[in-house]
Amino acid sequence: MSTLPAFLNLRRLEGRIVALFLALLLVVQLASFAVIRTSIERNANGSIAAELKTGERVLRRLLAQEAARRGDAAELLAMDYGFKEAIGLPLAEEGTAETIRDALSNQGERIGASVVVYADNELRLVAATRKDAGRFLGLLQARVNKPGPGGDMQLALLDGQAYQVVVAQVRTPAPVGWVLMGFALDATALQDLKSLSDLRAVVVIRTGTEGAWRPLVSNFDTEAALSLAGQIPAAGGLFAAEVNEEQWRGRFAPLLEPQQPLAVVLLRSFDEAIAPYRQLQLTLLALTLIGVSVFALGAVLTARRISGPIKTLSDSAERLGRGDYKTPVRRHSSDEVGDLADAFEAMRQGIRSREEQVHRLAFWDPLTGLPNREQFSQQLALRLARDSSPCAVLMLDLDRFKHVNDVLGHAFGDRLLCSVAQRLQALQRDRGALLARLGGDEFVLLLEGADQAAAQASAARIQADFEAPLHIDDQTVDLGAGIGIALAPEHGSEVSQLLARAELAMYAAKRRQQGSMVYEAALDAGSQESLSLLGELRRAIESQELRLYLQPKVDLRDGTIVSAEALVRWQHPSRGLVPPMQFIPFAEQTGFIRALTAWVIEESARMTQEARRRGMAVRISVNLSTRDLMDQELPAKIMSLLARHGAAPADLCLEITESAIMDDPQRALHTLERLSELGFKLSIDDFGTGYSSLAYLKRLPVNELKIDSSFVMAMERDLDDAKIVRSTIELAHNLGLSVVAEGVETGKAWKLLAELGCDEGQGYFIGRPAPAQQFMDWLPSWLPPDLSHESLDTVMAGLT
Ligand code: C2E
Ligand code: CA
Ligand code: CA
């Protein structure tokens, strides 16, 4: 079916139109053909009937003319002098009859009569040209008795023969007798008729009134005449006959009185009569055929004109269905189909613009105009599927953004993000890297073809660029960021894995305040390397590889040391002294942190007791992590550990980061309340890097707030950081919290913090973390530094 052209396929519109047109044309043509045919036949029959009627009259006239001519010949004989003389002789005289007969014969032969008879006034036969002439005396009598006889044609029947019989009276001058001439009917008149017209004629005769007609003379051949005589209908009149396989129309006409058995049949060939019409019909047929072909062609073209635009339109609709909204739907005609095409086009444009909008929302970050996480993931997936050559994913998270947002406002934060996006974009412009914003203050870069060295170089470039502060409105903002790097295919060949590992590395970099970091398995609790690390850590406690370091905290007003922070180190048998950032995050992820915290608390409790024995009072701050806070048994556990060494809750301060609380604020709050009730001092660590606000802190049972070192270390040169430190101190005091500044590295920082009202300080300027025993030995020798020469004029001028 499908191989048929459309205009032959009745299931298609095109085929149906063509078929309908042709069927209509054929019906009209056939009807007119039939009408023409019957009217031709009716016309032919009518004109033949007229022709036959005329033919009959002509034939009668011809016979009458012949009869008249023969009558004249009889008169001529009757007036012939020699003949009259001969009949005037006495009949008794020898040779008289002979003489009369000779005269009759001469005249009869000359005119071609079959018989010539002379009878006297009493109609007695005197002489004749034939011996059987007595038979004709009856005919003579009939004529004499009834003058003007036998019709114009003077026909008579005698013994089954037709004759033309003429009679003339002989006068000398008194009537003396009669001359009769008989002519056997021959074909002369019929031949004349044939030469005058296209008609044939057969004179027929029958024996009796019911007998069969038989031909007497005709201008036909004998056989045809015979066959025709057999086809004469009893009723006579007009009839159809077939002779020699030809159609004829006949007219039967009696020649004598109707009841007498002599008649003529006039014939006209029907086939011949309609031959010219047949020619016409053939011409008509040829015209019909040409008409049908022309019509068919026209129908096909028209059908195409109609179905063509519909087909184009349905192709367009199919394209739209497939989701191709790029190709416009064109109008091909000015009719309704064209209107439909316009409607399709409007629909296409509508869908397309909406689709583009959806696409924009789905794949682009509306704030910065950068690709979003979704697009980045897709591009990375494509890139990873395309080839396995190296590339690097570089994830970047701004430092302290949350805090900037809180203090300087969200609109400012948005502007800051846009500026950062522009800077990153400018940096990557010539390098063909793909830059995207993942959300919040997180950005990601895909570095094509980058190995570890190249990725680190890129990260270094970003860090270097960020050293130049941003200027937004009148504000100057110090940028800082943690950058995590994951390499493909080394660290994974899947999008989610690479992103997760870059993120791990990024958080590690932030925690270590190290700028950038390349992913390593140790960061990842799930990796094989980590499992062996976990085993090692377990052993570390048993084989006493952990070391407790203490870092002093000083009262910024009088310079006395009243407390210290416990910081753990791992004295690894082969790796040496491992800093906490290389195993604390891992311990948190694996849950090992609980054992570690217990160890630190026990060691710290021991140290407070040792200090007491040495006559000093040192409160030790211990860091707690999320896992610890989630543990409902924690307060009880700590109490039993303290009891073991005779220490009290007041000997410890517990440091909690904001993020540790935010994981499950409800549960964390519950634990904190328990701890607070038990008499522990509670401190918020790394304040400013997390997401909580000061308002939120109001609900927490904390006593102390530690400003993150990144603000403190930057505040001497960055006025905004100094403002943040100042407002943090003010707000904390308003909430009844004491404030500790971390990262005090200079005397100037100390002096500035003291000026701003900060309560305590911790940092390298006072003392680096040292092994606990060493710390105990060092403590008595502590003397507050002399800060009188430090000048704060420039900073303070900026702050007021
Ligand atoms: P943290 O609680 O904020 O501890 C302060 C970190 O700042 C310590 O690094 C300390 O050495 C460092 N630091 C102190 N003063 C200065 C300074 O003036 N300048 C600079 N640049 N740094 C200074 P550390 O010991 O490497 O510890 C890193 C982090 O590891 C800690 O941050 C804490 O979050 C975690 N940590 C350490 N020990 C423990 C522990 O026993 N338990 C738990 N859960 N976490 C711990
Ligand atoms: Ca801490
Ligand atoms: Ca801290």
Global outline: rod-shaped
CATH fold naming of the largest domain: TIM Barrel
Assess the beta-strand content as a share of residues.
15-25%
Widest β-sheet, arrangement of strands: 18-19-21-22-23-24-25-26
Radius of gyration: 71 Å
Number of helices: 26
Q: What compounds sit in this structure? A: ligand C2E, calcium ion
Low-pLDDT stretches: none
CATH class of the largest domain: Alpha Beta
Number of domains: 5
Head-to-tail CA distance between termini: 93 Å
Q: Class by helix and strand content?
A: alpha+beta
| Residue-averaged pLDDT | 88
CATH superfamily of the largest domain: EAL domain
Q: Can you summarize the main beta sheet?
A: 8 strands, mixed, barrel
Number of strands: 27
CATH architecture field of the largest domain = Alpha-Beta Barrel
Question: Helical percent range?
Answer: 40-55%
What can you tell me about this protein's structure?
The structure is a single chain. This protein is an alpha+beta fold and 800 residues long. It has 5 domains: 6-43 and 278-315, no CATH class; 47-277, Beta-Lactamase (2-Layer Sandwich), CATH 3.30.450; 323-363, no CATH class; 373-519, Reverse transcriptase/Diguanylate cyclase domain (Alpha-Beta Plaits, 2-Layer Sandwich), CATH 3.30.70.270; 535-799, EAL domain (TIM Barrel, Alpha-Beta Barrel). It contains 26 helices and 27 strands. The strands form 5 sheets. It has an 8-stranded mixed beta barrel, surrounded by 4 helices. Strands 2-1-5-4-3 form a 5-stranded antiparallel beta sheet, with helices on both faces. A hairpin with a 2-residue loop joins β14 (470-472) and β15 (475-477). α10 crosses α11. The radius of gyration is 71 Å and the shape is rod-shaped. The structure holds ligand C2E and calcium ion (2 copies).
